[in-house]
Amino acid sequence: MSAEQTSLPADEPRWQRRAEERPGEIMRAGLKLFARKGFAATRLEDIADAAGVSKATIYLYFKNKQDLFVSTVREFAEARVERIEAFLDEYQGSYAQLLELVLRQLYEAAQTPELRAIVKTVIAEAGNFEDIRDYHRDHVVLKGLGMMTRIIEAGIKKGEFRPCDPHAAAQSIVFPLLMNSIGRQTFGELPILDPEKLFAAHMDFVKRGLAADRET
C-alpha cells in the first residue's frame, strides 16, 4: 500500500471535499442560527462561519438570506409534502389506513430538527417577514391541510368516515401534533409532552371521532 493511501488527507475545508453537500450544510447551519438568534439578527457572515464556508460561497447557491430560508423550506418541508401528495395519487385501499399513514408521516416530519427550526422561525418572524410567512403557509401548511382534507372527503364518500366538515376536521387532526412539537422546542423535552404517547392517544381519538358507525 502506498504512502499516499496510508496517510491522512490534508486538512481542508469540508466544502472542498464534498462540494455537492455545500447547499445542505449551509441551509442546516442557517436554520440553527435562525431558530436560536432569529431571522433578522442572523447575518450571512454568521451562517458562513457556522457552515465552514466563505460568504461568497453562499452567494453561489442563494441570492440572499431570504432566498436561503425559502430554499430551506422547499428542501426540508415542501419536498416531504410533495412526496406524500404523489403517494396519495397512487393509493388504493382503506382511507382509515391512509389517514394513519399520512398522519404518521406528518408527525415524523414535525419531529425533525429542520422542520422544528423552520416552524419556530416562521412563528417568530411572521409579522416582520411576510414573504417568508406566506411561502411557508402556501407551500407547506395549506398543502398539508389540503391533503388531510382530501383524505377525509374521500373517506366520507366511501362510507368509512361519518359526515363532517372536512376542512375543520383536518385542522383538528393536524394542529395538535404541531403544537406538541412547538411546545417541546419552547419548554424542553418534558415527560408530559412525550410525542409518541400523544400520537398514540391522538390517533385513537381521530379514529373514534371519524368512525362511520359513531353515533352523531
Care to describe what's here?
The protein has 216 residues and is mostly helical. The protein has 2 domains: 11-62, Homeodomain-like (Arc Repressor Mutant, subunit A, Orthogonal Bundle), CATH 1.10.10.60; 70-210, Tetracycline Repressor, domain 2 (Orthogonal Bundle). It has helices spanning 3-6, 14-17, 22-37, 44-51, 55-61, 65-90, 95-111, 113-125, 130-158, 166-187, 195-210. α3 (22-37) crosses α4 (44-51), α7 (95-111) runs antiparallel to α9 (130-158) and α7 (95-111) packs parallel to α10 (166-187). The longest helix has 29 residues, at 130-158.
List keywords for this structure.
Arc Repressor Mutant, subunit A, Tetracycline Repressor, domain 2, 2 domains, mainly alpha, 216 residues
- Name given to the CATH architecture of the largest domain: Orthogonal Bundle
Distance between the termini: 77 Å
Whole-number total of structural domains = 2
Q: Please indicate the percent range of residues in DSSP E strands (runs of 2 or more).
A: under 5%
SS-based class: mainly alpha
**Highest-level CATH class of the largest domain:** Mainly Alpha
Oligomer: single chain
Please report the total strand number as a whole number.
0
Determine the number of helices (DSSP H or I, runs of at least 4 residues).
11
| Helix proportion range | over 70%
Report mean pLDDT, rounded to a whole number.
Answer: 87
What name is given to the CATH topology of the largest domain? Answer: Tetracycline Repressor, domain 2
Q: What name goes with the CATH superfamily of the largest domain?
A: Tetracycline Repressor, domain 2
